[in-house]
Amino acid sequence: MELSEEELRMLEQMERALVEEDPKFASTLRGTSFQRTARRRMILGGVVLVAGIGLLIAAVLLELTAVIQTIVGVLGFVVMLGGAILALTSARSPSAVTPKVRASGRTGFGVVDGGRQHRPGRVGRQRSGTPFMERMEERWRRRRERGF
C-alpha cells in the first residue's frame, strides 16, 4: 500500500526533525556503519580473490614437484573461492552498499513502503512464499478495485 503525498511529506518532516535532534541516532538508522562494513568486506574479498589467483599462477609458473604444485594450486583455488564468496555476500543487497535516493535527490532511511524500490509501472510482488492461489486472489481483488 503506497502512502499519500501528505503522508510522504509528513514522514520526510519527521526524518528531518530526527536528524536535527539526534544526528548520531539518525546515522545509525541509515545504516552508514553497515555500508562501510559491507564496502570493507567487498574490498577485502577482492584482495583475497586476487591473492588466490596469484597462488594459482605461482603454482603453474614455479618449477616445483608435482605434489607441492598440486597443493599450492588447490590452496590458491580455495583462497580464491573464499575471496569471491566474501565479496559476493557483501554485495548481495544493493541497499547495503549504496544509500537509497529519493525522487527529491536526497538520501533517506528507506522506510517508505518497507524500504523496497519499485520499478515504474509495475505492481509490487507478493512474497515468493505466498501460495499461488492467494496471489491470484489478491491480483483479482486489485483489478476489481481499479475497475478493469
TrEMBL record:
<keyword id="KW-0812">Transmembrane</keyword>
<feature type="region of interest" description="Disordered">
    <location>
        <begin position="108"/>
        <end position="134"/>
    </location>
</feature>
<dbReference type="Pfam" id="PF11239">
    <property type="entry name" value="DUF3040"/>
</dbReference>
<feature type="transmembrane region" description="Helical">
    <location>
        <begin position="42"/>
        <end position="62"/>
    </location>
</feature>
<dbReference type="InterPro" id="IPR021401">
    <property type="entry name" value="DUF3040"/>
</dbReference>
<keyword id="KW-0472">Membrane</keyword>
<protein>
    <submittedName>
        <fullName>DUF3040 domain-containing protein</fullName>
    </submittedName>
</protein>
<keyword id="KW-1133">Transmembrane helix</keyword>
<feature type="transmembrane region" description="Helical">
    <location>
        <begin position="68"/>
        <end position="88"/>
    </location>
</feature>
